[in-house]
Amino acid sequence: MDLGIRGKNAIVCGASKGLGKGCAAALARDGVNLVINSRGREALEATAEEIRRESGVKVTAIACDVTTPQGRAQLLAACPNPDILVNNAGGPPPGDFREWNRETWLKAIDANMLTPIELIKATLDGMIARKFGRVVNITSGAVKAPIAELGLSNGARSGLTGFVAGIARQAAQHNVTINNLLPGRFMTDRLRGNMETNAKKAGRTFDEQARVLLAAIPAGRFGTPEEFGEACAFLCGAQAGYFIGQNLLQDGGQYPGTF
Predict the structure, then answer these.
(1) pLDDT score of 59
(2) How many CA atoms lie within 13 Å of 108's alpha carbon, on the beta-carbon side?
(3) What totals of helices (H) and strands (E) does the chain contain, helices first?
(4) 152, 166, 191, 245: which has the fewest Cβ within 10 Å?
């Protein structure tokens, strides 16, 4: 399918690896020029070169911390008028809410709620003026089915979800869509790290821990960053203009609800 976005310009955050990289690569395959971001320069530059080599699109790598005003300014200076914005940031660490203080909460809210909102604020009016825009926020399946030890993520990402529900309806008449893509368990470095930690706590091997997780996924496997990226690219395409303020769960069927 031709998504109708060849030659468009996109900002993809958290794109050096994992789900963000999957999104950037999928957009590049559809001819979208990229400005990609992460904090680690070495991995980011390697990803940029890989995508350039495979797709031939223009890829600009900006190593910065987008949770800061200075980092966002750097990113927007490289792409002041994006047609596509993919917001993505690693989730805050798990833990017991009794151990979290105000500073811990504000750090989570900054990364997983306020930073996406600030980037939307900086780019939305330009999209509206050009009568085309696609914003995809990578949040978490925990928004749909909260995970007790991920309270920081549950709270911050749910705040973003509520904000998007309102602003997406205001932008829709201008052919600007804002949606959230909710990953379940995808085989990324973050999942591997969490599995290793939980395996040690439970006295299991890594493979045993994997089997425990897989038993709860009807698809019988973990997702891949590549398929996640293709779903993101579709939401950014011309054909997805009627998806407005949606929370699209991609979890292999793990969530058991009807709604």
Answers:
(1) 98
(2) 23
(3) 9, 7
(4) 166
- Residue 50 CB coordination number (10 Å): 15
Q: Is 131 left (phi over 0), alpha (psi -120 to 50) or beta?
A: left
Residue 256 CB burial class (10 angstroms; 0-12, 13-18, ≥19): exposed
Q: Which residues is 136 bridged to in the sheet?
A: 86, 179
DSSP annotation of 222 = -
Question: Residue 9's closest CA among 85, 70, 72?
Answer: 85
d(CA 214, CA 220): 6
pLDDT for 91 equals: 84
Strands (E), the chain: 9-12, 33-38, 59-63, 84-87, 133-138, 176-183, 247-250
Single pTM value for the model: 0.95
217 touches 223 (CB < 8 A): no
- CA 1 to each of CA 4, 29, 207, 238: distance values in angstroms, whole numbers, following the listed order: 9, 12, 37, 11
Q: Please list the rounded mean pLDDT of every run of 10 residues in the chain (259 residues).
A: 96 97 98 97 97 97 96 97 96 90 96 97 98 97 89 95 97 98 93 87 93 95 97 98 97 92
The first and second tokens of residue 110, run together, are 């900054």
Q: What is the CB neighbour count within 10 angstroms for residue 65?
A: 15
Q: Which two tokens stand for residue 104?
A: 């811990």
> Which residue do the tokens 């070169």 mark?
49
Cα of 1 vs its chain's centroid, Å:
23
154 residue type, one letter: N
